[in-house]
Amino acid sequence: MDSIKGIKGVKDILPEETPRWRLIEDTARRWALCYGYQEIRIPLFELTALFARSIGSATDIVEKEMYTFPDRDGTSLTLRPEGTAGTVRAFIEHNRAADPLPQKYFYIGPMFRHERPQAGRLRQFHQFGVESFGTSDPRADIEVIALLWRLLSDLALPDLTLEINSLGSSEDRAAYKPLLRSFLLQQESRFCENCRRRMDTNPLRVLDCKVPDCRAATESAPRLMDHLSPEARVHFDQVLSGLCALDVPYQLNPRLVRGLDYYCLTSFEITSSHLGAQNAVGAGGRYDGLVETLGGPSVPAVGFAVGLERISLMLQKTSTALRDECLYYVAAFGEAGVKCGLVLLDELRKAGLSAQCDYRSSSLKSHLRQADRSKCRFAILLGDDEVARGTVILRNLESKAQEALPLSGLASLLRARTFSA
Ligand code: HAM
User: Fold this and answer.
1) Whose CA is nearest to atom 25 of ligand 1?
2) Domain containing 414: what range?
3) What digits encode the pLDDT tens for the residues 199-222?
4) Nearest CA to ligand 1 atom 14
């Protein structure tokens, strides 16, 4: 019978990889807490309307990438393609705006997008994201960008570039779009089919099309950055000077428009030349109108998300030595040894020491072979003779040095040694 395979673009994270994943997640959590963000856990699926209304019905995500299905009563549900919409929904639903602002949240978990799988692009992928509610001050933008930069730098990811742009206010964009559209229409034939379609529905997205001909055609397009209202300009300048003050290097990218419709003012992306085509490690921006769009009060907000698969791909190159280590291998053999070994294993584990044993082995020789394979640091040898003497032999599996230790009170002795080392 054929075995059942996993789904295309949906990957297992195997035990060799989980130490690296935990390092990434622990580092992300540590930095988030350090900046005063609190963890929120939002559902994996929501009403489809939530994503259509927030991400935008003319975006790639909503048009063609969502996993949408009818519930048993026909209600349309969708697996979350990102975390901002759900966090905003929870913020509104639990009336969090009635509590003191600002409020700052972070999340880690799987997201789902039906994209064409390739290196760094999956259908089930994981994001760490932060959302800061209640401050329109540019220092909130600076804070989230600095948090993202510090986190990625702490993980020592290579060749990072922070690209930044301002998308202005919704009025700025409304005034700019006709200018851009008429520029694009003048040379419509130079664009790919996708861009031609977008000229009507979402002309800003034409600016970040990756097709070389389209890029060439937009080289001299009017820039939104040059059409910002005075307030948006001041906000952007303050963000840039704050980044300078914190020594966070950036590059202006007037083409950066983002694939989700909720953004305004600051938008940013961190890329790495080590990632190939899918070079965005993380991205985000301000979304002052979204809480209101989803039926809440007017609350400004800013945030970002990073892709954990992409970080993991980059970490593979910088640190491959991570693995989960087990400390003790209990080599119990002989009738009395096996009996005692069962209890000793339990005592070690209760004392917080990692310990294992291969129950199939019955001789010292086969135990030692398994102990070497297990990559434990020490083996505890316990046969009938040791039980009779009330001792064990502790063997360092690397240096092969051995010492006799009393069996009684062994777990607390080893615990004291391990945690005082
Ligand atoms: P996004 O740019 O769509 O933004 O995704 C953020 C990051 O998630 C990307 O830079 C990338 O690293 C990762 N990512 C996206 N799609 C995939 C995929 N198919 N496979 C692997 N990784 C992927 C957002 O999701 C916004 N919610 C970010 C945000 C939070 N803005 C404000 N707050």
Assistant:
1) 82
2) 328-420
3) 888 889 898 888 888 989 999 999
4) 307
